[in-house]
Amino acid sequence: MQKSPSGTSTQDWIEELPCAVTVCDLRGIVLEMNERAAEQYEKYGGKRLLGKTLVDCHPEPARGKLLQLLESGASNTYTIERNGIRKLIHQSPWYSNGKRGGIVELAFEIPLELPNFVR
Predict the structure, then answer these.
(1) Residues 6 or more apart from 117 whose CB is under 8 A from it?
(2) CA nearest 31: which of 109, 98, 96, 108?
(3) Angle, vertex CA 34, rays to CA 89 and CA 66, nearest 5
(4) What topology does CATH give the domain 16-110?
(5) pLDDT one-digit tens code per residue, 25-73
(6) Which residues on adjacent β-strands are paired with residue 106?
(7) Strand partners, 92
(8) pTM
(9) Element (H, E) at 19
(10) CA dist., res. 95 & res. 92, Å (int)
């Protein structure tokens, strides 16, 4: 793991990022999740999801969409709202040495009303 000039790990920022970060491989096996993701998915097992497949955690049609993303390498972005909290979900392929390794999901809380700027 790389160290920054301040001496911290270059992956330390993931824990303090104000969003849930979940990383899986091409089979949907959870490789990493930050603490916010573990809290978000606590009712599904939280950190116990590490090493388990995300495919089993999703009902249809989300399961089919996940399988499609794993196979195609496409990205997917959408918003959800639950209990008055709105989130932006972005799922994107991640790469290592130019080879696709799986999907990273970022889940950010966003305001209910979000300005849009055309520039």
Answers:
(1) none
(2) 96
(3) 40
(4) Beta-Lactamase (3.30.450)
(5) 999 999 999 999 999 999 989 999 999 999 888 889 999 999 999 999 9
(6) 21, 90
(7) 104
(8) 0.86
(9) strand 19-25
(10) 10
